[in-house]
Design brief:
It is a single chain. This protein has 150 residues and is of the alpha+beta class. The chain has a single domain, classed as Olfactory marker (Jelly Rolls, Sandwich). It is 21% helix and 31% strand. The strands form two sheets. The protein has a six-stranded antiparallel β-sheet with strand order 2-3-8-5-6-7. A three-stranded antiparallel β-sheet has the order 1-9-4, covered by helices on one side. A hairpin with a 7-residue loop joins β6 and β7. The chain is globular. This is OMP protein. It comes from Quiscalus mexicanus.
Length: 150
Amino acid sequence: LELPFTCDEQLTRRMRLRFQSLQQRNMRPQDGERLLRPNEQIYRVDFIQQHQLRFLRWNVQLETPGKVTVTGTSQLWTPDLTHLMNRQLLEPVGIFWKKPGAEEVECNEADAQEFGERIAELAQIRKVMYFLLTFSGGLEPAQLKGSIVF
């Protein structure tokens, strides 16, 4: 079973508006609130099956050299009612990178394995899971194809 990461444009836009609104009113975020940076996007995974999932592997393809950090959120996040808080971000994170001239995407395999197993556990109580993806090293969201294989 392969479940793709889908960019949640509406949620990303809403979080960017929150940041702009705070700036325009010269206000500070709430204590512990996590604001979206320009190089970050919100993605989601919809679980079409929730039980008996056993994490097998990540399928991350990067068209160009760069790095993407995938951070999961710990709650069934309802963005219209709550803001993203630092305490909602899961550890470990998945870090995937591609070096110039390389064909293969690399990752810290121990963290990626533990993160994948944690997602399989969380899928038992959720139909959707949200992720914060941070792009660096010149990588853009359009250059990423990613999924989780169970």
